[in-house]
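Whiteboard transcription, Tuesday session. T.W. wrote the C-alpha cells on the left side:
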C-alpha cells in the first residue's frame, strides 16, 4: 500500500488519503504537461460541450468546470469535487485531507484569493476559480499557442 501524499499546499503540510466515497466531479485540472494535454483534449470537444464549461488558465495550469459527464478525460488530470464540509474548496474526488476539511478550508482561504479554490495536492498548487469564464475555442487556442505552455511539456 502506498503511503498518503504529503505535499505542502499553500505552505501547509497536509497528508492526503484515499476517500471512502469519491466526490462527484465538478472540475478537472492539469498542471504542466498535463495542463497542455487537457487543453488539447478540450480543444477537440464539440462546440456545445465546450460552451457548457467555464474555466481558468495560467502559464502552467488549466482548470475546467462543468457537468461531470462532459469533462474531458486526460491521463494525470485531477478531477475535483465539492466536499460539503469545505464548500469553498474544490478537492480531489478520490482523496481527502487528514485534517477536518473545514479547518483546511479556513487555513487555505487566508490570503489565497477568492473562493472557490481548486486544491491540487500532488503539485501543491492552489487556483482560484472565482473568475472562471465560459470557455471559448479562440481563447483556448490562444492559450495553447503561448510559448510558456509549450515549454511546460
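and on the right, the sequence the group agreed on:
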Amino acid at each position: 500500500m502506498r503511503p498518503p501524499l504529503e505535499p505542502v499546499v499553500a505552505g501547509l503540510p497536509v497528508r492526503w488519503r484515499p476517500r471512502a466515497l469519491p466526490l462527484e466531479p465538478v472540475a478537472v485540472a492539469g498542471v504542466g504537461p498535463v495542463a497542455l494535454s487537457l487543453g488539447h483534449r478540450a480543444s477537440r470537444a464539440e462546440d456545445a460541450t465546450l460552451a457548457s464549461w467555464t474555466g481558468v488558465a495560467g502559464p502552467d495550469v488549466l482548470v475546467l468546470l462543468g457537468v461531470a459527464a462532459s469533462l474531458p478525460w486526460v491521463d494525470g488530470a485531477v478531477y475535483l469535487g465539492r466536499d460539503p464540509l469545505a464548500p469553498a474548496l474544490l478537492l480531489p474526488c478520490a482523496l481527502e485531507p487528514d485534517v477536518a476539511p473545514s479547518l483546511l478550508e479556513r487555513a487555505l482561504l487566508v490570503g489565497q484569493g477568492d473562493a472557490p479554490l481548486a486544491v491540487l495536492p500532488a503539485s501543491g498548487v492552489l487556483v482560484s476559480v472565482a473568475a472562471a469564464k465560459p470557455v471559448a475555442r479562440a481563447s483556448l487556442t490562444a492559450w495553447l499557442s503561448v510559448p510558456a505552455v509549450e515549454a511546460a511539456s
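Someone added at the bottom: The first helix runs from residue 33 to 43.
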